[in-house]
Design a protein that fits this description.
Elements: H1 11-28, E1 32-39, H2 42-49, H3 51-68, E2 74-77, E3 82-88, H4 93-107, E4 111-113, E5 116-118, E6 122-129, H5 136-153, E7 157-159, H6 165-179, E8 187-196, E9 202-213, E10 217-219, H7 221-231, H8 234-250, E11 259-265, H9 267-270, H10 275-285, E12 291-298, H11 306-318, E13 322-328, H12 335-340, E14 345-348, H13 350-354, H14 360-375, E15 379-383, H15 388-396, E16 401-403, E17 411-412, H16 413-422, E18 423-426, E19 432-434, H17 435-445
Helix pairs in contact: 2-3, 3-4, 6-7, 8-10, 10-11
């Protein structure tokens, strides 16, 4: 299925081609290069200049890649603002860097749309097979890492680091250990509270997976989720998270009424035919008057089969499950998607929330998202709230719900239950108040 905006093949087709090309060059003992091209500040182009400008930026990248590629090379749009270029028969990384610099040079010109002019600079990550990776998945990961390095360093392009035997061994050990994590009862559910900015009351929590490994200690999701997705472990992990989070929530007793429990679902799980049944089975098994299930899906989930995704989300909403769009503002959603999406809330990405007080552009973006969401009767959650100034600014912008370390860090189920029981609201100075904190203060000053 081709992307309607750029007329390029999508991620799934690209992954099949990459796998085939890697196998082909391995047989003939030659090299290929993978370039990942990312539009810098793409979400800001959408929000500042409009979605037509976003489309124009995507089409500009596609045209540039068409100019650069040679016969036998492959290009695709594999993410919201991410493109891939497979270069065949490269001799070394220098050849790939020449192509990357040509792309960067061709993109470093103003884009004209009606009476508006804007720029869409790119960051490029480069990885070579077999120099930087031994397989298609590892090659993609290496190029992605290089691209992130280019973005964070402000460089036009970066080349992947060579694969390391020790790192490969550690990755393999983690794969093996992760497969047994549920059976060995090493997985944990942590909860991070969310509070209403209108009333100050808790309205729910996001359920987050942690791996308590006997050898490594507590392992965060940034380390093991990519491994789970690449090995297929993400399916049993998601089922375990849904059931465990709902079971724990059904046991809580507190004075705050029904609380929403949010569980993240990856695009890989959302694409499965049994996705709706999996979610509803967990909800029915642990149905409770204390809790309401919310499924969080990434905005990038809509890039592939939009009609299939919307149909599944609609089935869940019709069954009483709330739908939240996570990391909103970082991906690509056209206004038609926005109008039709079967969702209840948007979660503003923390990258916008973090600079809300000091950066006027971020404040404008948050204000736009809140206003747009409310016009379509969607509530808005701001994640990554780290201080009282940000909390106050979000209230002024009429954001509905806040989540972040200023309110509470993610915590084990027992600790979260105590937090719910002891929570007292937002005090006059804007700080979070709990009876535990009051006791501690009395003991300190007594």
């Amino acid at each position: 299925m081709k992307d309607p905006v750029t007329d390029l093949h999508g991620r799934q087709h690209f992954l099949r081609i990459l796998e085939s090309d890697v196998n082909e060059v391995a047989t003939h003992q030659v090299s290929l290069a993978l370039l990942l091209i990312d539009i810098r500040h793409f979400s800001r182009i959408n929000l500042k200049h409009g979605y037509a400008a976003g489309d124009s930026a995507l089409q500009t990248v596609a045209k540039v890649l068409e100019k650069v590629r040679r016969e036998g090379d492959q290009i695709a749009r594999i993410g919201d603002d991410q493109f891939a270029l497979i270069l065949q028969g490269v001799m070394n990384s220098g050849h790939a860097e020449l192509a990357a610099h040509k792309i960067h040079r061709l993109m470093d010109v103003p884009v004209q749309l009606d009476h508006d002019t804007f720029r869409c600079p790119v960051n490029i990550g480069i990885a070579l097979y077999p120099e930087h990776a031994r397989g298609a998945d590892a090659l993609l990961a290496a190029a992605d890492e290089a691209q992130h390095r280019a973005r964070s360093s402000g460089q036009p392009c970066c080349v992947a680091k060579g694969h390391d035997e020790e790192e490969d061994s550690e990755h393999w050990d983690m794969e093996m250990a992760l497969e047994d994590a549920i059976q060995k009862s090493e997985m944990r559910v942590y909860f991070q509270p969310k509070i209403s900015l209108l009333t100050g009351k808790p309205v729910g929590a996001e359920a987050l997976a942690r791996w308590d490994n006997s050898f490594r200690g507590i392992v965060g999701p940034n380390e093991f989720i990519p491994i789970a997705e690449s090995t297929g472990f993400i399916r049993p992990l998601t089922e375990w998270m849904l059931n465990s989070a709902m079971r724990l929530a059904s046991e809580w007793e507190h004075p705050w009424g029904k609380q929403e429990v949010s569980v993240n679902v990856s695009p890989q799980i959302l694409a499965r035919a049994d996705f709706v049944d999996t979610v509803l089975s967990a909800r029915e098994l642990w149905r409770s008057d204390n809790s309401l299930l919310c499924v969080e899906v990434l905005e990038q989930s809509f890039i592939e089969d939009i009609s299939d995704v919307f149909e599944k989300l609609k089935q869940l909403r019709d069954a009483g499950v709330r739908i939240s769009i996570d990391d909103f503002g970082t991906g690509y959603s056209s206004l038609s998607y926005f109008r039709d999406i079967p969702a209840d809330e948007l979660k503003i990405d923390r990258s916008f929330v973090a600079g809300l007080v000091k950066e006027r552009d971020n404040a404008n973006i948050v204000e736009l998202i809140v206003d747009l969401a409310h016009r379509f009767k969607l509530s808005v959650v701001a994640e990554g709230v780290e201080d009282v100034q940000t909390l106050s600014a979000l209230k002024k912008l009429q954001c509905d719900v806040a989540q972040g370390y200023f309110i509470a860090k993610p915590m084990p189920a027992e600790e979260y239950h105590r937090w719910l029981v002891n929570y007292r609201g937002i005090n006059a100075s804007g700080a979070i108040s709990t009876s535990d904190a009051e006791k501690t203060s009395q003991q300190t000053t007594g």
